[in-house]
Amino acid sequence: MDETPLPEVTEQFARTLAPASGQVIGEMDAKADREGFPTVGPAVGGWLRLVARMVDADRVFEFGSGFGYSAYWMAPAVSADGQIVLTEVDADELAEAREFLDRGGFADRAVFEHGDAIETVENYDGPFDVVLIDNEKHRYTEAFEAVRDKVPVGGAVVADNMIEAGPLEFEAVQALLDGDDIDANETSRGIAAYLERVGDDPAFETGLLPLGEGVSVSIRVE
To answer: Which GO terms describe its molecular function (predicted)?
Structure first.
């Protein structure tokens, strides 16, 4: 009898357990499928909402928001008087994010920042209970450094694309983490550098969710 690989079973089961997506998320999923736009998907989206609930999130910051998919998943878990800061360099995508969150009744807790996320976060004092890093992969470590001190004890830093992302070569990432000096592309080096940085930070404990394209979750413990 053929067996379904564990990662596929995990993804399917996570989708089953995820909160009901609703009409707006359904439209966002359809848009992503139609346009080939990379989103975290409902399995990871459900986990993002759960993480936000577990830390009782009042404030969220996103490095790279696209048309608001991840933010929409987290919005119901953010307190009504809380704040989600969305950042996006594409003005049209940011406008779509505003429209989607407005339709869902979450625009009142969202701030829409057009421009570079790493420059934008410098304008905020924090604290941020949840941070999502999903910008250019070679800048993940830079994003972490920019927001690290704004994450309180108990807060979470989530980073997407730890296993898959366009030109990402997972074997190269693993080799770099093992200390091998290999010829790797910018994306692979960026992910490896990020994992090494958060893994070596004594103030954070990090684990991996084997869902979507691989998601790391780092909790601030001191």
So the answer is: O-methyltransferase activity
